[in-house]
Amino acid sequence: MTEFMNLKVYQYKKMTVYNAAFNSLSDMQMYILSKPKVNDKIFLKQHSIIRRPDFPEDTFDNAVDYLIGGYTGNYDLTLEMLKEFEKTMPIRTYRRRQEKAMAGSHPNIPAYVAGTPKTMYRLTRAREKKFVTIWFNLAYSIHTLEQAVTNRGALTLSLIKLLEEYGIGVDLKVFSSCYSNDEVFNSEIRLKSPSEPINMKKCFYPMCSVMFLRRVVLRVMESMSFHEKNWYPYYGQPLTEDQFRAIFNIPDTDIVISSPVQMGIFGQDINCDSYNFFKKIDLDKYIKLAKVNKPC
């Protein structure tokens, strides 16, 4: 089991931190398929596998299969919503222009005939490649609407597309970080490196589906050697952005996508949600939009 999950347990101030890192979704699947022992002293029932009337979406086994096979669900509908939304937020793209110079790739004949010094053409300098790390927190309150979860994931995917169109490589890590009294749990997976383009279908399942957190992440939590009894039955409370940055030493230059409520996303209007979302992360620090949605 340990070859699929890198688990570190350590002290942070007066808290015990359980940090479970996976290199990929397939490693997470292999860990769960190895049937890690449930900490039944804490988790009296496994909420990861229980069928509930308010959560009819799918079974635990299928949720685990989706880690490799992918989950389509309302993918097409979400993609259409994104396309309509992105029409309202065009970016000022940077294009290299041709300029006169003393040295270049091809001659400027009129300038040569006129005897001017700049007798060549060259392209303006390419922008220096930039990179940013995005941390996407899967954890959220039990009162959060499913549409709010979907909107937050969709807006984050849109953000990544915007950044990459502007020449900024994105290192995307999804995590679930929560606490109960003096114990902290964090599970993280890298979904893409800065050098690879965004794979929308691969990211859709963990970022836009409630099933990933409620089935897959909870099963990982159930295997942790917690001692705090209050992990059950609600599986802890999400860390705030400030708490997450402090405990895991996340630099200010990284973007942290917190729970839908903390990002101002309520799942009732995508335009209202997008305004709050981009305001929260201060998008102007990274790219300049041609126009910005007005507040609701």
Describe what you observe in this structure.
With 296 residues, the chain is α/β, with parallel strands linked by helices. It has one domain. The protein contains 9 helices and 10 strands. The protein has helices at residues 25-33, 60-69, 75-86, 109-114, 146-165, 200-208, 210-221, 241-248, 270-281; strands at 6-12, 15-22, 98-101, 106-107, 120-123, 130-137, 168-180, 183-192, 237-238, 255-257. Strands 1, 2, 6, 7, 8, 9 and 10 form a 7-stranded mixed beta sheet that branches. The protein has a 3-stranded antiparallel beta sheet with strand order 3-5-4. Strand 7 and strand 8 (183-192) form a beta hairpin. Helix 5 runs antiparallel to helix 6 (200-208). The radius of gyration is 23 Å and the shape is globular. The model has no long low-confidence stretch (mean pLDDT 85).
- Strand fraction: 15-25%
What structural category do the secondary elements indicate?
alpha/beta
What is the overall silhouette? globular
Q: What is the average per-residue confidence, as pLDDT, rounded to a whole number?
A: 85
Question: Quick recap of the structure?
Answer:
This is DUF7192 domain-containing protein. The chain is of the alpha/beta class and 296 residues long.
Task: Name some characteristics of this structure.
globular; 7-stranded mixed sheet; 10 strands; alpha/beta; 296 residues
Sequence-ordered SSE layout with sheet pairings:
Elements: E1 6-12, E2 15-22, H1 25-33, H2 60-69, H3 75-86, E3 98-101, E4 106-107, H4 109-114, E5 120-123, E6 130-137, H5 146-165, E7 168-180, E8 183-192, H6 200-208, H7 210-221, E9 237-238, H8 241-248, E10 255-257, H9 270-281
Helix pairs in contact: 1-2, 3-5, 5-6, 5-9, 6-7
Organism: Ruminococcus albus
InterPro entries: DUF7192 (IPR055616)
Pfam families: DUF7192
